[in-house]
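Hi C.,

You asked whether I'd gotten around to modeling the 340-residue construct. I have! Everything is below, sequence then structure, no commentary in between.
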Amino acid sequence: MSDFPAYGVRLNYGKIAHVALIMGKLVRNTKLDDFTDERYYPPVDSDTEYVLRYFLCMVALDHRTSRYQPFEGFVNGEFFHGADLLYRLGMRKFLTDPEFFSPERLSRITTDEVTEWLSVTLNNKKITIWDPDVRAELLRDIGIKLLKFYDGKVCRIIERARNRLKGMPGYGLIDLLKVFKAYSDPVEKKAYLYAKFISRRGLFTYEDPYNAEVPVDNHLVRVALRLGIVEPSKQLLQKILNGDEFSWDEDVELRFAVREAYKYVARITNIDPLVLDDFLWLFGRHCCTRSEPVCINRCSGKCEVLSYCSGGCPFENVCACKGERALRITEHNYQNTYYY
């Protein structure tokens, strides 16, 4: 990375073009998730309103699951970690008590209830999701506002969206979701993740794919920084290298830049950003990881998950951060967030 802007973040359009050529081929070979795995998501024959409720609530909770200890453990003898454990516990609740996700119940949910629900035991130690008090607040907000603005039905939101992600003020799924605190992120991570889930399940069809964006989380930021498609200022880069915490506006600026960079990749490759996100999330979570990126821990060619990196990272010739430098360039430090 060189010739940084004095302040803020800029896009490297040359890098974007080179990355897009490689990424487009990888994305087209990625099997799209239809979100029907019943360990995490409702069965396909479930009532539409119940499914829409479930995703609205689970995506609202889908931000950093751990801070002081990993959120991981066993459910029915199977080990889960992070977001996988969150959704696994969500489905266990959905199957045993589907009315738990009703707006009436949500409107009065307590921190103790969330703590009891989103906890597991590992090595005789209770493991609870980070910030259960905040998550309880987010769920209460959803319950209260569903009752107040949407007759207690998520279907009303879908109807009012009129098959659009964005539109005139007051219309479009993304804007309609902003009434809920959980979906108030300026960069709209959770809103686009919700749109991705329910559209892939066939519960929402958007006629304006040009308004689609990737849901920017830590994995997508880390990949963008390492590839060099976004370039932070020297000041922000130093904060990343030092592990210094970003301010709210610095976080928003960086994630907006990352979202825009991926939008250009999507346009060059003619791939919907919500489809591009499938690849980016998997690649960031399994290949370009924080502590063991594939350029350090080379893939054996026997990857059981993706096989993107057999013989080495597919971005090896264009990546801005290889080897030890990749360990220094990670996602920025922004801990106290319920956005992502």
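If it helps when you're writing up: The CA atoms of residues 21 and 269 lie 7 Å apart.

Thanks,
B.
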